[in-house]
Write a structure and sequence with these properties.
- The protein has about 350 residues and is mainly alpha-helical.
- Helices cover about 55% and strands about 0% of the residues.
- The chain has seven helices and two strands.
- The chain has helices spanning about 5-15, 20-50, 55-150, 165-180, 185-200, 220-230, 320-330; strands spanning about 205, 220.
- The chain has a two-stranded antiparallel ribbon.
- Helix 3 packs antiparallel against helix 4 and helix 5 packs antiparallel against helix 6 (about 220-230).
- It is rod-shaped.
- The chain starts with 6 loop residues before the first helix and ends in a 10-residue tail after the last helix.
- Residues about 200-210 and about 330-340 have low confidence and may be disordered.
Length: about 350
């Protein structure tokens, strides 16, 4: 840090203050008293003109007393002056210290205010970036949703569904439901279940699996099977409770189809056509099967815990012990009116 005063001015200040140093002040005091005593002695000697030794002795004593008194007065003056200067220096130091403290407090306050402003600006920038990111993300999800919906309606030149494109749309909707559980989960579930209800009446091919009830069961069409798989592996624990919706398969036609190990837990299957369906190992716990047609259905190892079977048609459904266990354990037997 450089001194703002030039060298010559600093030298002048040092020369002007040399006499304020204590050794020089003592020397000046002694020389001044001695000079004062000498001059006073000469004046008194000239004025009085002592003639004998007694008069000279009295003159010297008087000169000593006067000189001592003057020296004492000068000492008192310098002492008072020194105390005053010391007090002024202390007061000046206190003022400087107080000014420095106020300046430091002001600087600290300005620094804190600057930090708070920076934090607010940073928070606002982060919030703005978050909002822009959310808008961009929602726009991307909307675009993906629209494209997936378009894929669900894809057909070839003969009007037959393009299953490979429809499967892509179904799995794209599943990804959207996982990426946006709060805003899009319920919509995706409603779209997929509506698609399954509208397109479930045309199983794709027959199989060699036959039943005691004379008709072969058929494989589900790939897109319907994909919907059931997506619904079965839904992750509701990631979805806020107010956005959860039970899968809506009301009046769906899944007759004569293979639904082994399908997961339809909690689904609404009221009035569904599950006649001769192979539901072995299926999870139908807490499902609403009100008025469903389960005639000749294979329910081997199916989980019917907590399901609603009011007015369901279970004529010929087997094995009967699965139904009996479900009724005895979960109390639906009071409302059960099947035609077994």
């Amino acid at each position: 840090m450089t001194d703002p005063n030039p060298p010559r001015q600093r030298d002048e200040q040092q020369e002007e203050k040399w006499y304020e140093k204590t050794p020089y002040q003592i020397l000046l005091f002694v020389v001044g008293i001695a000079f004062f005593g000498l001059v006073l002695g000469l004046i008194l000697d000239w004025y009085i003109g002592p003639k004998n030794s007694t008069q000279k002795k009295d003159l010297v004593q008087a000169l000593g007393l006067i000189t001592a008194g003057v020296a004492g007065a000068v000492g008192i003056y310098f002492t008072w002056r020194s105390q005053r200067l010391t007090r002024q220096a202390q007061e000046e130091n206190q003022r400087n210290t107080l000014a420095q403290l106020k300046n430091a407090e002001k600087q600290l306050r300005l620094s804190q205010q600057s930090q708070e402003d920076n934090q607010r600006n940073t928070q606002e920038q982060l919030e703005q970036a978050r909002n822009e990111l959310d808008i961009t993300r929602q726009g991307q999800i909307t675009e993906r949703f629209t494209r997936a919906i378009d894929q669900l309606g894809e057909t070839d030149d003969n009007g037959e569904p393009k299953l490979e494109l429809r499967l892509g749309g179904i799995y794209a909707l599943e990804r959207i439901a996982k990426d946006s559980p709060e805003k899009d989960y319920s919509t995706v579930m409603e779209v997929l279940t509506a698609y399954a209800r509208q397109n479930s009446s045309t199983p794709s091919k027959g199989t060699n699996e036959t039943t005691d009830h004379k008709e072969p069961r058929k494989e589900l069409r790939a897109d319907i099977k994909a919907v059931l798989d997506v619904v079965g592996r839904r992750q509701e624990d990631r979805v806020p409770e107010e956005h959860r919706v039970p899968p809506d398969f009301r009046a769906i036609n899944l007759s004569n189809t293979i639904l082994s190990s399908v997961n339809l837990r909690g689904a609404n299957l009221s009035e569904a056509n599950l006649r001769v369906a192979a539901l072995s190992g299926a999870n139908l716990s807490e499902a609403n099967l009100f008025g469903a047609n389960l005639t000749d259905a294979n329910l081997y190892e199916a989980d019917l815990r907590g399901s609603v079977l009011v007015t369901a048609d279970l004529s010929g459904a087997y094995p009967i012990w699965v139904l009996a266990t479900a009724f005895a354990a979960y109390g639906n037997v009071r409302e059960y009116r099947s035609r077994v």
